[in-house]
Amino acid sequence: MTFKHLILAAAALCGLALGSAHAATSADAGLIQRGAYLARAGDCIACHTARNGKPFAGGLAIQTPIGRIYSTNITPDRENGIGKWTYQDFAALMRHGESKAGYAVYPAMPYPSYSRVNDDDMQALYAYFEHGVEPVAQANRKNDIPWPLSMRWPLKIWRWAFAPTPEPFADVTATDASARHGAYLVEGLGHCGSCHTARGVTLQEKALTGDGNSIYLAGGGAVDGWVAPSLRNEHGGGLAGWSEAEIVEFLHTGRNTHTASFGAMNDVIADSTQFMTQRDLQSIALYLKALTPQHANATPYVYDSHVAGQLYAGHVPAVPGAQLYLDRCAACHKSNGKGNGRAFPALAGNPVLQTSNPTSAIHIVLSGGAQPATNTAPSTLTMAPYADILTDQQVADVVSFIQTSWGNAGGKASADQVAKLRKGAVPVEARGFPMAEPELHHAAPADQASGTRG
Length: 454
Prior knowledge:
The chain is mainly alpha-helical. It contains 19 helices and six strands.
């Protein structure tokens, strides 16, 4: 676990119990079930479960600029978890970042977002964690943060400055009840802004809601090799080219005709959004499509068949990276860049490739990629890493070719950028996905199979 979990995934305090839940004693079964669903929406298991550890027992290492912190045990164990917490204790943590022990928690937990959760849903979450999760007697680990950075009182100043006392949820930008419900999910439990909103120098989100600004969900910065793209209804990397149905499909399956999920978003799809109801997903899509562009002058993507025609005819353009793409990438993504259905994502028109920042594309080439297995799309399709096969310059060349071909308007990559990202590249198999073999096609372009050419 790295710093991306501070910026991109953020810790959560709710999730799905994967083990046997202990019997409810004082809480209504329906309330517990509602809490379990809301816990899915919050994707808490992503941060409060260590790899190969017990659900919600904590212990996951989160690297931050001041040192390593470890997620805490949030099972109902009375000695190590939250089994002695009252509802008021729970709500104070969720809404104010204040622990039962009286100290402020690190903003790795997105409590500024959770503060928007209404009382009924907060009660359901509390019931679930107290009566629907199996207690685990696992002690919390001490954070590896040196003194004086380990002092907690500065966190109260941060909270005062950037997480003021929450107000009841009220979205004024949404035009109907469904869109308002989508705003409630996105801005609250979904904490989408934790990744997709730019942050200031003190790591605070520059906007917590879509009310009266175009910063919220307009894209986050590059962290640990990934860039969270814009979720606003805009061209040049946003969702302007997506229909509401395509947004729902992506959240439900991790893929659509435009792209496939990668990086931290894989966990969000696998652990959270794939389990949400169609009503909730449709509400989210409606809200996102209602967000006005931050970059109103960005032009729509238009497919350019020039490079595709050259590659198909066997005339490799005299452009760095073109031959590399044909040899190593075209078998899956095709010479026309349109991919192969939902098995291998399209590169032509892919929103991730329309911005000036090539970080995500570089990371995928170096580390490989994987589409998460979901209930409706159970195949885990992977792309093997090329870090041990291609030089920094070769990676830069093929990424630059991808970002500027077929009408893509992305920026070119440099060998220096690749060298910096290579230091933190984690192979896809180390992230828990099976590894596919790299493509090693070296046939002349004219001999490529028609399925490869496009």
